[in-house]
């Protein structure tokens, strides 16, 4: 097989079949994908279905802590986990640029396969398109996912109530700054790692111990501030963050300062914001801290009756700063 | 709102929210999409789940008989229908090029919404990314879909048996030639319409009347010849086509001749190949012909014991020509 992607690989003919069998099917192998029909036919346990999709266009495609392939698996798993679902199946749609080195594709596909395997999720269907050189940038990946929500569980951005507290499982802004430092060739490069990770096990532990959780959401594009704005609007409540409680790595804070960015607007790919009633906040933090992805879990804010629909930061010196949704494209192609 | 897409629309912040609420949510509105959480939570009837994905990169994005939006809905519905599933839910992932006119996006999104509505399928989750000008070509759309396969139904490329017959619901090569004639500015332009259509109702009628159907598959990229090669390999049988039975429009045949293409390798987007036992072939044809998308249904070939894994054409003058899988990229960006 040619060691670069050609238009031929997108023809639907012989070369497409070779690419599928030699690259994708080998990496992702499972019984469902092996059916090789137009769609995979899948068993599902009882419950409601959660369904989500995300396209990944991150630049660069390989970065400290992951690549576009592992990110595409983690991101969609996390979207499912945020609705309380146990992720079951993923689909993968590839748009490849003619001339993409096959070695690079294989590295990305291997990372996807490994991420899916570690998360015990099967990639059950896929699609590959190739566009002429210059009509896309290396590789774009779409993953769509399906999971099952256990009966009785009801999470959603509309359920935050005054008095609730806002928890996070670790440091803020790592993914966005890892990408940006790599892209800009900052001297810090390589030090800041993306936090890209699958959160469904952590979330599973949390929901098992604290079914009272009201909202789960992952602060990706737009960061913690934008995500909390969404929740504040959906629930018609205010949210207040405590500056001194925000977990931010020193190197991330330094890079943000250097580039004039606010870490509260920088994307995360392995973080979950949990809004929980105050009575269970200690138990929730304990459970999160027992999981490797939640060791630095902490309470960063609370839900208020005042200022419905708005998010404010209580600064170290006791002042208040309004945190609106992100305006303007802070970091293009961050995921 | 700006009348062209800016990087800002992909930030995840305020502009993204405006785009979602003013363009996507209005067009696709339904209760599931309205949940506005990280994934949609959905009821599913009992049965096995069918799941499929396809990315669409067709060029031009608007063509006689449809556009990339309607195509993206029809294509994934059809992939689900081919496994005997009743399509229920779609996700939509957009990769937009900076500078895309918002009017064009709205036209595409409207066509998606209309196609989904006509097919009684809900678009339940979505995602939008924007890449800088020159890093994609106008718009790429991924649709992933979920459907339910009724208990007991078992279709698949591996079930063709010698003696079975091969049926098709209408003319061959329309979609590919509609795209190619438009792209090349051929004088014929506008006369050849894409056959892009959702086939699940036709397939539903067929399976209700003839549950004995063995294989259903839609001959998209690679065309009828490549799709039948897949079935021949999966089932370990030979397939023989009858040249005089192939339904091909005169203008499609003419355009193919002009461009040196074989219509058997040209993509279709509203056609289904059905492999059925001979005893039910007449009934199957009758049922298909009663549906508006099957009026020209006919038998085009049969499954043989000889030449397992191969497809041959019995020509008008009685000779035989081997039809291999498509080699080389005949028509890039056809879907």
TrEMBL record, chains A, B:
Domain of life per record: Bacteria
PurM-like N-terminal domain span: 37-149
Gene3D superfamilies from the UniProt entry: PurM-like C-terminal domain, PurM-like, N-terminal domain
UniProt domain PurM-like C-terminal: residue ranges: 161-311
Gene Ontology biological process: protein maturation
Record Pfam families: AIRS, AIRS_C
SUPFAM superfamilies: PurM C-terminal domain-like, PurM N-terminal domain-like
Family matches, as CDD domains: HypE
PANTHER family per record: CARBAMOYL DEHYDRATASE HYPE, HYDROGENASE ISOENZYMES FORMATION PROTEIN HYPE
Record-stated family: Belongs to the HypE family.
Stated name of the protein: Hydrogenase maturation protein, carbamoyl dehydratase HypE
Organism this protein belongs to: Desulfacinum hydrothermale DSM 13146
Top-level taxonomy: Bacteria, Pseudomonadati, Thermodesulfobacteriota, Syntrophobacteria, Syntrophobacterales
